[in-house]
Amino acid sequence: MFISNLEFMTGKTVQQHLGLVQGSSVRAKHAGKDIVAGFKNLFGGELKAYTELLHESREEATERMIEQAKAVGANAVLNVRYSTSSITAGAAEIYVYGTAVVLDGIDD
Amino acid sequence: MYELILTVVLVSLGYIFGRRAESKHYKSIIMREKEMNTLPAMASRRPPSDGHYDQALVSGSVVIANDYFKSFVAGLRNLFGGQMRSYETLLDRARREAVLRMKQEAKTLGAEAIFNVKYETSNISGQTRKKMPVIEVHAYGTALTKYGI
Fold first, then answer.
1. Model ipTM over 0.85
2. CA angle, B136 then B141 then B142, to 5°
3. Which of A59, B88, B91, B94 could form a disulfide with B64, with the two C-beta atoms 3.0–4.6 Å apart?
4. How distant is the Cα of B112 from the closest Cα of chain A, in angstroms?
């Protein structure tokens, strides 16, 4: 599965457009990490726990998008966009979407 | 009285550690940016059409918090208006760090350039109790690797 945020694949032609595919993931972190984050707010700096949390969450959302793309028979997702929104205290939603396409000259 | 003392202590702690952390971070950013100079990241949406490239999505993200001193100063600044230096440097650091992480990922793929770089900034401070500024910056783009490597 090829994932790209360009609108095309260099050297390949799009055979078929299969429409929008998407994936999302909502995650919360546990209270311990929140306390650490509180301290960090004093001294400033990176909140590694949050960085990891959002990274994992983003990967999961992408994974879900790929599953959906596979289900419709695509072999690539182009023009991928991410968006983040904080829904409530302690939870963030990651949303990813793109266009599922069938590309020429990829055997899988 | 007790609260005043606590605030003074927190502000001075924030000032000392926050400043140190920031100058350290800037030093490391500048050093790594020099290393990564050979791998350009562009906002252009059209990669060169000659030659075959493998495309892969790469991204880097960072969650960063302001220190207590800066938040305090920013609070004062809010009264009079004007340029908020403390937030500017915070966002600047976060963006540059995110791009560096993205480039790092592209470098491990052996990429030549990154196209269509997009930034996404979100405020996730709703997650901490006191609504202190916590900012996430996510940078992503398409890494181009020469075909067949």
1. no
2. 155
3. B94
4. 14
